[in-house]
């Protein structure tokens, strides 16, 4: 897992540089941490929704479903780096579902995403509040548990998850080098990923 965290750190440096930001300075700024927790939370939520759509259309274990899980992993690692979750804090990934259902994983993940949002002062009309780092960390750890469960439902062990992550990380670097944006977004480059 340490290698995945290191690769994601390098990708985040590149991605933020492309929008004129220094990733390491941004992560050191308490006000920017909150902004990027929200950015990565929204991105992870979108990837989870894409996974739900994929499972609805093609069932469990689809090729693209595994890529969506890896897309979730990218943003979960990024969140982890902000809230001080380290590779050693992540759960053990097993290909055995042990009765876990996809639906229960999705509900658990959305509840953890809600807890993460609640760790931020997002209710502009509410008094008090403020960023709660420990609550954010707990929510990210809960997301890791749900990701591990989703992987088990997909019979995706850690070795395969890492192999797909490395390939997708390469695709993401290529996207950054080619000025990837909403107007040019395509999923065709994912076809090169061996699942």
What would CATH call the class? Mainly Alpha
What spatial form do the alpha-carbon principal axes imply?
Answer: globular
* Helix residue percentage: 55-70%
Q: Output the radius of gyration.
A: 16 Å
CATH T-level topology: all-alpha NTP pyrophosphatase fold
What does this protein look like?
There is one protein chain. The two termini are 19 Å apart. The mean pLDDT is 90. The chain is globular. The longest helix is centred in the N-terminal third of the chain and has 29 residues. Helix 1 crosses helix 4, helix 4 packs across helix 7 and helix 5 packs antiparallel against helix 6. It has seven helices and no strands. It is mainly α. The protein has a single domain, classed as all-alpha NTP pyrophosphatase fold.
Give me some keywords for this one.
single chain; all-alpha NTP pyrophosphatase fold; 67% helix; 195 residues; mainly alpha
List the helices and strands and how they pair.
Blueprint: H1 2-17, H2 23-28, H3 30-58, H4 63-83, H5 102-118, H6 133-153, H7 158-177
Helix pairs in contact: 1-4, 1-7, 3-4, 3-5, 4-6, 4-7, 5-6
Brief synopsis:
With 195 residues, the chain is mostly helical. The protein has helices at residues 2-17, 23-28, 30-58, 63-83, 102-118, 133-153, 158-177.
